[in-house]
C-alpha cells in the first residue's frame, strides 16, 4: 500500500469553498441578462461553479446569441456579482480552518474570481494574513481557467512546493478536475456543492464543511500520517 503523502501546502478555492457566494452568481446572471431583454435565463452549475466570468460570458453568448463583446459582458457580470456579494457568509468553520492550516502549511487561494475579489474576501474573513499574496491566483492571472490545472500549478509554484506536496479544497467539478490534472490531492467541500456523487468520485476525500474535520487534521497532513483516500468527514 502506498504511504500517505507529506503535505506542505493547501490551496483553497474561494466561492463556495471558503465563502457562500455561489447563489449570487445565478442572481447576477439573471439580472444582467434581463437588462439585455432575456428574462429568466440561467446556466447549469457545471458552467458557473469554479469558472471565470469570461467563461460564463462566452457560454451566455453561445446560448443566447446576444450581441455583446465577451469582455464587456464579463465585466458587467462581475460588477453585478460584486454588488450583490457585499456580505460574506463563511462556509462553516472556514476561518478557523484557514488559521489552523496556516500554523502547519503554506496557503494559497486559486479562484475563477479576479485577484481583487480574493483580496477583498480574505480581508472580510479576517484571514488575509494567513494567505501568501504571491499565491492568490485569480482568474485574471491565468490563460486557461479550471478545469485546466494552470491556476493550481501557479499556486504551488508561488509557494515553492511540488504539486504532489499540495492539497486542494474545492466545491466544483471543474476545480476538482483541475486538482487531479495538477497531480494534487483534493478535499471536496460539499455543503454548497452541486453534483455531489460526481464530485466525491473525482476527489481524494470529502467533507460537509470544515467543522467536520478532525481536530488534528492539519497536523496529520503536515506529518504525512493521514491517508485521505476515500475518506468522508461528516
Describe this structure in words.
It is built from nine helices and seven strands. A seven-stranded parallel β-sheet has the order 3-2-1-4-5-6-7, with helices on both faces. The chain folds into two domains: 159 residues, HAD superfamily/HAD-like (Rossmann fold); 63 residues. Helix 7 links the parallel strand 4 and strand 5. With 234 residues, the chain is of the alpha/beta class. 40% of the residues lie in helices and 11% in strands. The model has no long low-confidence stretch (mean pLDDT 94).
CATH fold node name of the largest domain: Rossmann fold
Order of helices and strands: EHHHHEHEHEHEHEHE
Number of helices: 9
> Strand order within the widest sheet?
3-2-1-4-5-6-7
Which percent range describes the beta-strand content? 5-15%
| Radius of gyration over C-alpha positions, nearest whole angstrom | 17 Å
The CATH homologous superfamily of the largest domain is termed: HAD superfamily/HAD-like
How would you characterize the largest beta sheet? 7 strands, parallel
If you average the pLDDT, what whole number results?
A: 94
**Count of folded domains:** 2
Helix share bin:
25-40%
How many DSSP E strands?
Answer: 7
Tell me the span between the first and last alpha carbons: 25 Å
Structural class: alpha/beta
What top-tier CATH class of the largest domain fits best? Alpha Beta
Detail the poorly predicted runs: none
In the CATH hierarchy, what is the architecture of the largest domain at level 2? 3-Layer(aba) Sandwich
The shape is elongated
Amino acid at each position: 500500500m502506498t504511504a500517505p503523502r507529506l503535505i506542505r501546502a493547501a490551496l483553497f478555492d474561494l466561492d463556495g469553498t471558503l465563502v457562500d457566494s455561489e447563489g449570487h452568481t445565478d442572481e447576477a446572471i439573471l439580472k444582467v441578462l434581463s437588462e439585455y431583454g432575456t428574462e429568466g435565463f440561467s446556466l447549469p452549475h457545471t458552467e458557473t461553479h469554479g469558472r471565470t466570468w469570461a467563461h460564463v460570458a462566452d457560454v451566455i453568448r453561445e446560448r443566447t446569441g446576444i450581441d455583446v463583446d465577451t469582455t464587456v459582458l464579463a465585466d458587467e457580470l462581475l460588477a453585478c456579482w460584486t454588488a450583490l456579494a457585499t456580505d460574506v457568509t463563511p462556509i462553516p468553520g472556514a476561518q478557523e480552518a484557514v488559521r489552523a492550516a496556516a500554523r502547519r502549511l503554506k496557503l494559497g487561494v486559486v479562484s475563477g474570481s479576479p485577484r481583487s475579489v480574493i483580496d477583498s474576501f480574505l480581508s472580510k474573513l479576517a484571514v488575509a494574513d494567513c494567505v501568501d499574496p504571491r499565491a492568490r491566483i485569480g482568474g485574471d492571472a491565468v490563460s486557461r481557467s479550471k478545469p485546466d490545472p494552470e491556476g493550481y500549478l501557479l499556486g504551488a509554484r508561488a509557494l515553492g512546493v511540488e504539486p504532489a506536496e499540495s492539497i486542494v479544497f474545492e466545491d466544483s467539478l471543474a476545480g476538482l478536475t483541475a486538482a487531479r490534472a495538477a497531480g494534487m490531492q483534493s478535499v471536496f467541500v460539499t455543503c454548497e456543492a452541486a453534483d455531489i456523487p460526481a464530485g466525491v468520485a473525482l476527489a481524494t476525500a470529502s467533507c460537509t464543511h470544515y467543522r467536520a474535520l478532525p481536530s488534528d487534521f492539519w497536523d496529520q497532513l503536515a506529518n504525512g500520517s493521514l491517508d485521505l483516500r476515500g475518506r468522508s468527514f461528516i
